[in-house]
Amino acid sequence: MYSSSMLFEKYYYKWIHMYKEGSVRPITLAKYYLTHREIQRRLPNVRVNELNHYIYQKFINEYAEDHEYLTVKVFHHHCKAAIMDAIEDGLLEHDPTRHLILKGKQPRKKKAKYLNLLDLKRLINQLNLGPEISYDWMILLIAKTGMRCAEALGLTPEDFDFSNHTVTINKTWDYKSPVGKFQPTKNKSSNRTIGIDPIVSEQLQKLVEGKDPKRPIFVPLDRRVYISTVNYRLRTHCIKAGIEPISIHGLRHTHASLLIYDGVSIPSVAKRLGHANTITTQQTYLHIVKELEVRDNKKILENMIRLS
After folding, report:
1. Does domain 8-89 have CATH number 3.10.20.90?
2. Average of pLDDT values for 276-281?
């Protein structure tokens, strides 16, 4: 099936089909195919046994001219996985990725990742929370639960327990495909039941009354959902509120940040967000954890001084 003289881009395409088709999520698979297109464009005539350190370094350098360092790192990771298998199969004698130097463009100025409590209140005051289900209601729900956008889009009326003010997240909505459909959550830990604001719970109960219990409540009938549309609406509200524009995913960070600042434990926040482990939560919100450590150290010193 494979030979050392076959074109590397052909080898990579077959490698994706052999090892990645059906074993990774569609969104991850799409990234591998994007990597293949880059290989096809930049190394169209290079054969597997011709890959060497110079060719691969030049290949990565050229890719790095138009991409940031972290993007280059992920791209290299996708390429290297196939190269390692080629070496193991005896198609390559030496590792062309050894001693690789990763480069990348200067990162763009980062947008605000989360809002403080005052700015979040200003944003919520701008939302048009009318008597019909809308993206504004979804924005509010994400801000108050920290769920992922795809998880919110996958919610149906039967996922809510309005008596106990909880919502069960057990699926997502594939908004990236031309014809949207339900799909599994990101990981096993993402299947969870979380509490929601009783006031919002009562409001949503009225909004979904009489609707199909198995149909996603935030997905328009016979229309595709574009996250860019949701983000544009959110940005408009942020500008009207006089605050730094934030993305819909930024509301998830906002929710988690406010909980941690308020003293909610990392394990509890991780469980609410559906993280696979607390390490993910700690790494994502490390800046907040460090700020709290400084604050706690001040409190410790103040207590020690009082004991003197």
Report:
1. no
2. 87
